[in-house]
Amino acid sequence: MYCTQRHFEHHGIPAKNFAGLMEIYECNYIRVRNLVPDIDSLPDAVYSRVDGALDLHLCIIERCRFTTTFKLSYYFTDPDGRFPAPDMLVRMYHDAQVAEVVACGRRRGRRHALYNRLYHSYTLVEKWRMNRFLQKWLGYCLMQGHRFVPGRVLLPVDEPVSPAAETLLSAES
Questions:
Q1: Quick one: pLDDT at residue 11?
Q2: Is residue 91 part of a domain?
């Protein structure tokens, strides 16, 4: 019994092995379901606005019986225009109840995808790191109060920049 307990004690951070990666996938699914309780009832592109926080954008790319693929991101503006960051492409597997990062784009100063599981092969540690980031980010979004529920989401038509984004963007300049 002691061996089993010691094996599963990780103080909230899963081990960087296959079982730990699967645990992160499961946690990501739970957090996505908390953030977007009924993804089937939403339009393809919506965003969530919370006072004092950046607008969180959700764009559903593909809806299938067993999977849903969507992009989750904030939007920023620089001299080259508007860009999403971190621009996470996430796939939910409804039957297995897991969610994983498929691709992650833009980091400061770069517009191409840094992580794209569709075109490259990654080590378990690299997958673990990217999905751990998603896990932490989803927790942060939930803590801020973001939720994508019908009646509370906004459609991206002539969307004004939120005051939090204006403050952040002027601070970066």
A1: 54
A2: yes
Does 170 reside within a domain? no
Domain count, the chain: 1
The continuous run of DSSP H or E covering 135 comes out as: helix 124-144
Which SS3 state, helix, strand or coil, does residue 126 take?
Answer: helix
Asked whether residue 2 is domain-assigned, the answer is no
Tens digit of each residue's pLDDT (9 = 90 or more) over 46-78: 999 999 999 999 999 999 999 999 999 998 887
> Is residue 134 included in any domain, yes or no?
yes
Residues 6+ apart with CB under 8 A from 60: 39, 42, 44, 45, 68, 69, 70
Question: Who contacts 46 (Cβ-Cβ below 8 Å, separation ≥6)?
Answer: 57, 58, 148, 153, 154, 155, 156
161's tokens:
């920049």
Sites in the chain below the pLDDT cut of 70: 1-13, 106-120, 157-173
pTM (two decimals)? 0.77
Q: How far apart are CA 87 and CA 67, in angstroms?
A: 19
Site of tokens 């019986």: 65
